[in-house]
Each structure stands twice: as structure tokens, then as C-alpha cells.
Write a structure and sequence with these properties.
heterodimer; A: about 850 residues; alpha+beta; five-stranded antiparallel beta sheet; four-stranded antiparallel beta sheet; 25 helices; 12 strands; extended; B: about 80 residues; mainly alpha; 3 helices; proton-transporting ATPase activity, rotational mechanism (chain A); V-type proton ATPase subunit a (chain A); V-ATPase_116kDa_su (chain A)
């Protein structure tokens, strides 16, 4: 009990909580994280619930905290994460928290507002400074040469706005036109200049004169904090009408205009005062920033724990909203799913909660009977979690169904390793996983958003086992980066003399005299690595192994279905489904596996009986096909097409029995149910009372027939007539589908296991190609250049080995293994139609909130 | 029959210890069942894989086809006999 083999036993409980104690109790349960509450007011919308006000307050607090966090991040202040987990504060502490946050937020807002206005001020002053500086240039320029260009603009009547820039001579020279020349100066965003200029030209019909100069240093926009480039401009015009027009255009282009004195002395004076004001402002701004920084640093110390507190409070009120109010208003009623094994610790937590709240009445936890399907809860640890996740990705197990995860702990890495078998590649994978396992704690603390890394890290134990098994299968395949180890000495030897070897380029050595009559003790003999017919030998071996492992795993899956039937008390299914299934699989496919072993043992090169010589060894596949097609085997030459006496007759018998299993699976169960129903309906006509018993029995049978237990809300006895026929039809169809799936599946799944051979062949070939095409090129050079070549080629080879052979091949082998487990293995016993137990746990809630916050 | 007892006994015994003896000495605890299952499945899968490889080579039906160079090197380094 309490292990991974089946999901935890669950029970529905009713929980009575005193109103005052409810908050503390729920808080304790949240820390425990073993209770899944059900919503008792599903038709009440979120705004009509009891604690909607509190939730809203929490939302508000969270908003304030997020604002604070944003400000802290803006100033790049490190937020200390002490990793502590404060308890959910009492409801009365909520007010304190609220006040603290309110104060902080107001203070910050005020500081920010002040800073913004100060900055605006500062910006204005800087702009004025620049205007003064730049326009001075214009004026100086104008004083020297503009009169030549614009003599007609000069105004002889010496109005007070009369500009200096034209100079004495200019005024005199253009004396006849009585013009009043005014100007405005300002600052505008640099990118707006061309449009601005065009607009001015068009709107004033060319009667204005614009000069502009760029401000080299970028200015800070006080509202957004962005750096912007601006330009100073000065516009000369004539008359009031133009002045208003120019001003309007400036306004439209969001140019800021500043008053500018006409006389150089005034301007100089103004510049002086601007400079002093800027300096003053700078000190004030610095102080404001300091203050803001102090406030934020103080807040940064606590912000994480505040977040946790607020989120906990919010989660508690959300949970309380799921509860029902008792009529007397003194009691809250909750319904929850609870693992039976944890009832004790839940009781304890409730007691702690009551004590904390100071209430005298203990909460009451009542077990309830229910017909609902309980949630599936598999208690995992850091080791089993990854494997459970692999299974859950396909479908969550039904309640208390056999869980494939514990078997996958070994079969998954093993089947992976059959495809990935290479001592070197396995070692790389193993070392990588070992690093993650040993550095688990520091790596865990370093949270990253790198999804690929997180996947690797989450599956570190799976990777570790995959690496270990790959090393083992690598030893058996005798493959280390496509080379072999000759640890025990090859059991083959060369038997040819020098003369023969000189004359022939290659030779096949005969097992009759070159083989030491016992095999290499561990794995494939190293001699095969050099052989040009290596693939012929390895294919025969690997294909057979694939089928042997596949049939073994499928048989295992079918046997696991027996545990399901036994556990759920479906004895009928054992006789009507399990037995024909296992007979079908054994008589056809296990028999094929047996033939393989017989072939391995009985045919040999040194046989005295010539019917047992290698040339007479029959192909297993052809034998199997002939067997299923009832084709008599044809003898060729002196060979016996059969491996043992009476094989032909036995095979016929096996096929006939296996084929008889098909109607057995297809019809036996529906017919049985039909007969039971007839029996149940017969007394219906005579006596109503009798129905109660028999009807119930028939219904029980029906339930087992329709795989998933029918919801018990259905009436105990079914209405007679058309409804029954429909049900029967459904049962027949269901049984038909199931049988077809199983029979065809057995064939196709067995063939599907050949992927073990195909992928392992591909992997071995790829690594050999990589060696001979890359590494060997480096090894063949001589002299000092050879050293360099090896160095470079090794780097290239190593990169390709890791990226293609370990990563890509590893991924593809992983996916094929996943498929073998999901489809070929689990289809034999696993329905996976349950739903997960998702308890109310602060840990989960905080994690979710933190990850959504990061996005 | 190309069958040698020592490696067979050795490997069978090795995996028997892992798969049959060790499960009995797993310390008691909540994960005992999982540990036992892991040990037994490891032993079963590893043993059958080794066995298949061993049996596939017991009575080879074909011999390796090697180049004369490899054969000479084999004779020189692996102690094969070269009549002349």
C-alpha cells in the first residue's frame, strides 16, 4: 500500500469547520497539500461568493506588490530570496499588511511624481540652456553675414523687437521695408524636423526663416525615461499673423517653445541663472533618487515573503469560497478528496489549525460514501517522478488501475539502450546525468527558464539509467564508438597459411575449424567488427532479440491486465478476455520465440547429421508464415524443413487453437451478458419483486462489460425493451473493436518491435561511418602534420559524436521507446481515462504564481 | 553444442543474485516494493539480453569474412596458427 503500483486509495470526506477556525484550518491544509476541495457552489458566480471582498483586497495588495516589484526591477536592486516560507498570516494581520503596502505605494508614487516633475523641470532648463547656446551661434553668424543675404528683411523703424542679428548696417541698408521681425526659439524631436520645416514653408508661404541645430547629447524623457534626440530651432518671421501661425504649427509638432531675450547681455544673464538653477535641481534630484532608492532597498528585502503571504491569503479565501455555509451560519461545510493513508496527518493539521485560531470546537472530518470515480493520486519521489510523467503524458490512470510507471523505470531505459547500445555514447550520457544528479541541489536552486535544460534536469534519473543500460548493451554489442574491445580474446582464429592469404584478398573463415566451439563469454565476438559480413550476422541476432524482447514485454502487459481484472473483481473478464488473449499470444508469437531458441541450439557447423548443417537451417519467418497459412513445408535437397519431429502437426494445432480464441474473445462476453439479461427479464413479467435482485446482478455484469464502471446514479434496474437492444448492440460493437484491436495489434505490435533492431543497426552504422569518414582521416596522416590533423579531426569527430550520435540519435531512440511503451505495452492493460488528484497546496500555487510572474 | 559452463553459470548466478537475492535484503521502507521490482526487472532484462547474445553465437552458421590483411594481423596478434 502507498506504493507506486496502484494509485492511492482515496475517499470523499465532509469537513465541518467552525467559522472562526476555518481560516486557520484551511491554511494548515494548504501547507500540508493533501486535500482536494470540491466546489460546492458551482452555480454561484465569482462575485456572489462569501469571501469575494477579501479576495478583492488580496488582489489589490498583489497589484501594489507588483508595482513595487516593477520599481525595484527598474532600479536593478537585487531582491533577496531567503527561501523561507512564511506561514499565511492571520486575517487580522491582513490589515497591517495592507497599511504597509498602502504606505509604501503612496510614498513611492509621491517620490516618483516629484522626481518626474523635477525631471521635467530639469529637461526644460537643459533645453533652455541648449537654446541659448545654439541660438547664440545663429545670432553671431547673423551678425556677421546675414545682412548680405536678407537685406530686404531689415527693419529700419527700430521697434523694440528689432533684432540685433541684422546689425546696424543691415538696418540701414534695408531701410525702405517697414517690417517687424520677430522670432521664436524652441526644441523639437529631431525626427520631426523635416516635416516641421516643410509645414512651416507651406503654411507661411516661405515667409519664415528657420535655422536649426542638433543637440548632440540625448535628453531623457521624464515620462517614459527614454533617451531622445532633439534639435534646437529658431524661426524668424514678420508680423503677428505669422507669429500665431508659427506658434500653432510649433504646438502641432509638440515643439517646446522657450522665451528668448533679444539682447546678448540679457541672454548671457539668463544663461547664468539657468546654469545655477540646473545645479540646484541636480542636487534635489539626487536626494530624491537617494530617498527612492532607500525605500526600494528596504522593500526589496521583504518583497518575496510579502508575495508569499499575500498569495497564501488569497488562496485560502479562494478555497473558503468553495465551501457551503451551514444554516446556522456558524459552520462552514467542505467536501474534499483525501488519500485514506493521510487521514491521520490531516486530522492533526486540522487540530493545529483549531488551536491556532483559539477556537474550542474541533473540526469534524467525516468519510462519505460516493459513487463518483475518485481522482488518481500517485505518490512519487524525485526518482520516480520522471517515469510517472512519461506515463501520465499518455493518459492518467483510472482510479486504482495498475500503474505502468514502476515497470517503465527499468523497461524504458532498457529498450532505449537496446537501440542506443554503445559503451562510449552511453558513458557520455551517464556522466552528464551523473553530473546533474550529484549537483542536484545547486542546480535546482538556480532556476532557469531554459526549457530544454529543464527537461533534461527533470529527467536526470531517467537519463542516468538510460546511460547505464546503454553502457551494458554497448558491452553486449561490443561497441565503443564503433570499435570493439577484445577483453577475453576472440574465439575465432585465422587458419589460412601465408600462401593462401597472399593470393586471396579476402577470405571467409569457416566456423567448422576456425571457431573455438565456445562463444565469446560477454557479448559479440570482437572479430565481427572487422568482418565485411558483419551486418548479416548482427541483423540475424538483433532481429531475433527484438522479437524476443517484444513478445516478452507484450506478454508481461497482458499478465498485468490479469491483476486489473482480479483487483476490480471482474472474474468474467478473466475467462472471457484474459485467457483467450494469452493463448493467442503464446500459441503464435511465443512459439515463434521458441523456434528461435531451437534454431540457435540445434543447427551447427560441426554437426554430424547433415540435416543439422547450417545450409539446412530454415528461416524462422518463412516457417512462421507457412504455419499460419497452413502451407506444408517443402524439403529442399537433403534438408528437413522441420526443426523437430511432429512440428507440422503441432503447428497446425497451435494455429487452430489460436484462431478459435478470436470468436471466444469476440462473442463470449456479449453472449453471456445477453443471456443474463434475458434471465433477469423473465421474472419481470411474473413478479416485480424478483427483479430487484436479478436486475441488480445483470446490472453488475453490464458494468463490467462496459469497461468503465457506469455511473451509479443510473437507476438500479434498466427499463426493458428498445433500450436494452441498444445497449447490447453497443456491447457487441465494443467487443468487436476490442477483439480486432487485439488480434491485429498482436501482429502489428510484434512487427513494431523490430524498430529495436532497425534503430540499433542505424546507430551502429552511423557511428561506424563517422569513425571511418572523419576520425580515420585524421589518423592516416604521418609526420608532424599528422598530429595537427588528429587534433582537428578529433574535435570535429567529437562534436559530431555528441550532437548527432548522442543528442539526435538519443532523442529518436527515446521517442521510439516512448512509443513502444505507450502503444505496444500499455495497450494491453491500461485504459488511462482517469483524472489527476490536484490537492490544494501552497507549494503548487506559489510555484505557478512565480512562473506566471516571470513571463 | 558450443556451450561453456563457466560463463553461463557465472552470468546466471550474477543476475540471479541481483534479481533474486538482493530483493530480499532491500531495507524496509515506503519504497521497498519499487526497489525490489527495479532489481528484479534489471536482472531479468540484462540476463535475457546477455543470454540471447551468447546463444546466438553458440553455433555460428556463418563465419566472418575478413580481408587477408586482417587475417594476417589476427594470426600475428591473436595467436592463430599459420602453417608456413
Amino acid at each position: 500500500m502507498g506504493s507506486l503500483f496502484r494509485s492511492e486509495e482515496m475517499t470523499l470526506c465532509q469537513l465541518f469547520l467552525q467559522s472562526e477556525a476555518a481560516y486557520a484550518c484551511v491554511s494548515e491544509l494548504g501547507e500540508l497539500g493533501l486535500v482536494q476541495f470540491r466546489d460546492l457552489n458551482p452555480d454561484v458566480n465569482a462575485f456572489q461568493r462569501k469571501f469575494v471582498n477579501e479576495v478583492r483586497r488580496c488582489d489589490e495588495m498583489e497589484r501594489k506588490l507588483r508595482y513595487l516589484e516593477k520599481e525595484i526591477k527598474k532600479d536593478n536592486i537585487p531582491m533577496t530570496d531567503t527561501g523561507e516560507n512564511p506561514e499565511a498570516p492571520q486575517p487580522r494581520e491582513m490589515i497591517d499588511l495592507e497599511a504597509t503596502f498602502e504606505k509604501l505605494e503612496n510614498e513611492l508614487r509621491e517620490v516618483n511624481m516629484n522626481a518626474e516633475s523635477l525631471k521635467r523641470n530639469f529637461l526644460e532648463l537643459t533645453e533652455v540652456k541648449h537654446i541659448l547656446r545654439k541660438t547664440q551661434v545663429f545670432f553671431d553668424e547673423a551678425a556677421q553675414g546675414s545682412l548680405v543675404s536678407y537685406p530686404q528683411m531689415a527693419d529700419p523703424s527700430r521697434e523694440e523687437e528689432q533684432v540685433q542679428l541684422l546689425g546696424e548696417e543691415g538696418m540701414r541698408a534695408g531701410g525702405q521695408a517697414a517690417l517687424k521681425l520677430g522670432f521664436v526659439a524652441g526644441v523639437i524631436l529631431r525626427e520631426r524636423i523635416p516635416a516641421f520645416e516643410r509645414m512651416l514653408w507651406r503654411a507661411c508661404r516661405g515667409n519664415v526663416f528657420l535655422r536649426q541645430a542638433e543637440i548632440e547629447t540625448p535628453l531623457e524623457d521624464p515620462a517614459t525615461g527614454d533617451e531622445v534626440y532633439k534639435s534646437v530651432f529658431i524661426i524668424f518671421f514678420q508680423g503677428d499673423q505669422l507669429k500665431t501661425r508659427v506658434r500653432k504649427i510649433c504646438e502641432g509638432f509638440r515643439a517646446s517653445l522657450y522665451p528668448c531675450r533679444e539682447t546678448p547681455a540679457d541672454r548671457r544673464e539668463m544663461a547664468m541663472s539657468v546654469m545655477t538653477r540646473i545645479e540646484d535641481l541636480n542636487t534635489v534630484l539626487g536626494q530624491t533618487q537617494d530617498h527612492r532608492h532607500r525605500v526600494l532597498v528596504a522593500a526589496a528585502k521583504n518583497i518575496k515573503s510579502w508575495f508569499i503571504k499575500v498569495r497564501k491569503i488569497k488562496a485560502i479565501y479562494h478555497t473558503l469560497n468553495l465551501f457551503n455555509l451551514d444554516v446556522t451560519q456558524k459552520c462552514l461545510i467542505a467536501e474534499c478528496w483525501v488519500p485514506v493513508l493521510d487521514m491521520e496527518s490531516i486530522q492533526l493539521a486540522l487540530r493545529r489549525g483549531t488551536e491556532r485560531s483559539g477556537s474550542s470546537v474541533p473540526p469534524i472530518l467525516n468519510r462519505m460514501d460516493t459513487f463518483e470515480e475518485p481522482p488518481t493520486y500517485n505518490r512519487t519521489n524525485k526518482f520516480t517522478k520522471a517515469f510517472q510523467a512519461l506515463v501520465d503524458a499518455y493518459g492518467v490512470a483510472n482510479y486504482r488501475e495498475v500503474n505502468p510507471a514502476p515497470y517503465a523505470i527499468i523497461t524504458f531505459p532498457f529498450l532505449f539502450a537496446v537501440m542506443f547500445g554503445d559503451l562510449g555514447h552511453g558513458l557520455i550520457m551517464f556522466l552528464f546525468a551523473l553530473y546533474m544528479v550529484l549537483k542536484e541541489k545547486p542546480l535546482q536552486a538556480k532556476k532557469t527558464d531554459n526549457e530544454i535544460w529543464n527537461i533534461f534536469f527533470g529527467g536526470r534519473y531517467c537519463l542516468l539509467l538510460m546511460g547505464m543500460f546503454s553502457m551494458y548493451t554497448g558491452i553486449i554489442y561490443n561497441d565503443v564508438f564503433s570499435k570493439s574491445l577484445n577483453v577475453f580474446g576472440s574465439h575465432w582464429s585465422s587458419v589460412y597459411d601465408m600462401n593462401y592469404l597472399m593470393r586471396n584478398k579476402d577470405a571467409t573463415i569457416d566456423p567448422k575449424d576456425a571457431y573455438s566451439s565456445t562463444p565469446y563469454p560477454v557479448g559479440v565476438d570482437p572479430v565481427w567488427q572487422f568482418a565485411s559480413n558483419k551486418i548479416v550476422f548482427l541483423n540475424a541476432f538483433k532481429m531475433k532479440v527484438s522479437i524476443i524482447l517484444g513478445v516478452a514485454q507484450m506478454l508481461f502487459g497482458v499478465i498485468l491486465s490479469l491483476w486489473n481484472y482480479r483487483y476490480f473483481g471482474k472474474r468474467l473478464d478473466i475467462y472471457l478476455l484474459f485467457i483467450p488473449q494469452i493463448i493467442f499470444l503464446c500459441f503464435l508469437f511465443l512459439y515463434m520465440v521458441l523456434l528461435m531458441f531451437i534454431k540457435w541450439v540445434s543447427y551447427e557447423a560441426t554437426a554430424t547429421d547433415e540435416r543439422l548443417l547450417p545450409t539446412c537451417a530454415p528461416s524462422i519467418l518463412i516457417t512462421f508464415i507457412n504455419m499460419v497459412l497452413f502451407k506444408p513445408a517443402e524439403p529442399s535437397g537433403n534438408c528437413d524443413p522441420y526443426m523437430y519431429g511432429g512440428q507440422g502437426g503441432l503447428q497446425k494445432l497451435l494455429v487452430v487453437v489460436a484462431l478459435l480464441c478470436v470468436p471466444w474473445m469476440l462473442l463470449a462476453k456479449p453472449l453471456y451478458i445477453m443471456r443474463n439479461q434475458r434471465k433477469a427479464h423473465l421474472p419481470l413479467n411474473n413478479h416485480v419483486n424478483a427483479v430487484e435482485e436479478n436486475g441488480g446482478a445483470a446490472h453488475a455484469d453490464l458494468e463490467s462489460g462496459v469497461q468503465n464502471a457506469a455511473p451509479a446514479q443510473q437507476p438500479a434496474h434498466k427499463p426493458a425493451g428498445g433500450h436494452d437492444e441498444e445497449d447490447l448492440q453497443e456491447i457487441f460493437i465494443h467487443s468487436g473493436i476490442h477483439t480486432i484491436e487485439y488480434v491485429l495489434g498482436s501482429v502489428s505490435h510484434t512487427a513494431s518491435y523490430l524498430r529495436l533492431w532497425a534503430l540499433s543497426l542505424a546507430h551502429a552504422q552511423l557511428s561506424e561511418v563517422l569513425w571511418s569518414m572523419v576520425m580515420r582521416m585524421g589518423l592516416q596522416r604521418e609526420g608532424w602534420f599528422g598530429g595537427v590533423a588528429v587534433f582537428l579531426m578529433f574535435a570535429f569527430w567529437a562534436v559530431l559524436t555528441v550532437s548527432i550520435l548522442v543528442l539526435m540519435e538519443g532523442l529518436s531512440a527515446f521517442l521510439h521507446t516512448l512509443r513502444l511503451h505507450w502503444v505496444e505495452f500499455q495497450s494491453k492493460f491500461y485504459s488511462g481515462a482517469g483524472y489527476t488528484f490536484s490537492p490544494f497546496a501552497f507549494e503548487v500555487i506559489l510555484e505557478q504564481a512565480a512562473s506566471s510572474n516571470d513571463d | 553444442m558450443g556451450f561453456s559452463f563457466i560463463p553461463f553459470i557465472f552470468f546466471t548466478a550474477l543476475w540471479a543474485v541481483v534479481g533474486i537475492v538482493l530483493p530480499f535484503v532491500v531495507p524496509k521502507g515506503p519504497n521497498r516494493g519499487i526497489f525490489q521490482l527495479v532489481l528484479m526487472l534489471t536482472a531479468a532484462t540484462c540476463w535475457i539480453f546477455w543470454l540471447c547474445c551468447y546463444m546466438a553465437q553458440m553455433n555460428p552458421l556463418i563465419g566472418p569474412k575478413l580481408s587477408n590483411r586482417t587475417l594476417m594481423l589476427m594470426a600475428k596478434n591473436w595467436g592463430g596458427k599459420i602453417p608456413n
